[in-house]
Hints:
- The chain is α+β, with helices and mostly antiparallel strands.
- It contains 14 helices and 20 strands.
- A hairpin with a 3-residue loop joins strand 9 and strand 10 (291-295).
- The radius of gyration is 31 Å and the shape is elongated.
Amino acid sequence: MLTKFQNYITEQHLINKGDRILVALSGGVDSMVLAELLRQCGYNITFAHCNFHLRGKESDGDEQFVREYAERVGVKLFVRQFDTLEYVETQKVSVEMAARELRYAWFNDMINASGQLLALAHHADDQIETFFINLMRGSGIKGLKAMQPCNGLYIRPLLWASREEIKQFAIENGIQWREDSTNNDTVYLRNKIRHDLMPVFDSIKPEAREKILESVNHLASENQLYRELLKEKLSQIETVDGVLHSIPKRHFDRQLLFEWLRPFGFSFSQCESILSSLDSEPGKEFYSTNYQLVIEKNTIDIFPIELTDNLLTPGLSYSKLPVRTTHALSLLITDNPNIAQLDFDKLKFPLRVRHWWHGDRFHPLGLKGTKLVSDFFNDNGFTTFQKRNTQILTDAEGEIVWIVGHRIDDRFKITDKTKTIYEIKFGD
Length: 428
């Protein structure tokens, strides 16, 4: 088994020379065998153990067991205590999900800070069980391909081995382990699959597990091809302008929409609602945790929710131009919308830059009366993203001086009485 283990690591390019490896060590047979195999192969390893305090003295016994093992073999051990039930209560998740989220949050912090790889003891039977869990969740190819040997800094060097092989190796090599009493509790979905479903497949066809694993591997290959084709397709139709992502509405179908939205945190049910809203009036909005989606007239736009106001915004530069003639208007030599030339003496400092607020009014250059900024936006065909991302320059009294890049306020224009021009440039 040691030879198979090392060959698998080499074939899958899991570990490079000089890599440091953090081993998730529960004390169960799988993680104990993984630890021993890595240690016997001479890799640079440390251990990490989670105590979820879900099984009372049994949980503490697991911790003590791995502490004694780490001390015996001379490997550094990190231990983290969790109040899992409190997390369940506050986050309103299942015990299984709570333990998973707590565990991986800690692991991520450790490996991101240290640059180590994290070795997990998932094996072939875990792979099959994960396949069926995802199948019952309604997963597509991405879920049905189950776990991969390498996922960023996460590696699974035992993914090729069956649970029986691992246990037999432990027995033959005198490797001790702790049994988790909850592994037999079929209240958990994974255990139901392990103890109730898989024996049925075994009775139908002796090599059922092997064939299921082949199917999972096929799905993994097909998923890789699908992702490459999807990336190519999206690159042809998606427009990215800074933080704005946009795709024409005419290109959408159900699956493409979901795949485009998934990285932005939108759920499948949201995608269904978005798809059914494509023919509705423009301006309908949807939100994920960090992003806003707006259905515009011809496009679907996505951009971050957070847009902040600033005293001085990067990209704006200021300069004073003294007037050497009584005809200041002759100095208005540019119609560049990214340059504002203002009467310096009419400004009250400091000037501030912010985003648009509902109810904002200004005096558009060339008009006698006032106008709602929202009406100005609508008259000029602004999208929701443009409205939210357009900057407003105000003076010390909050009066709007310039809709940056679009229109100055008539009250601050230069005239033939202007003595000093205050020029503001936006962008390079």
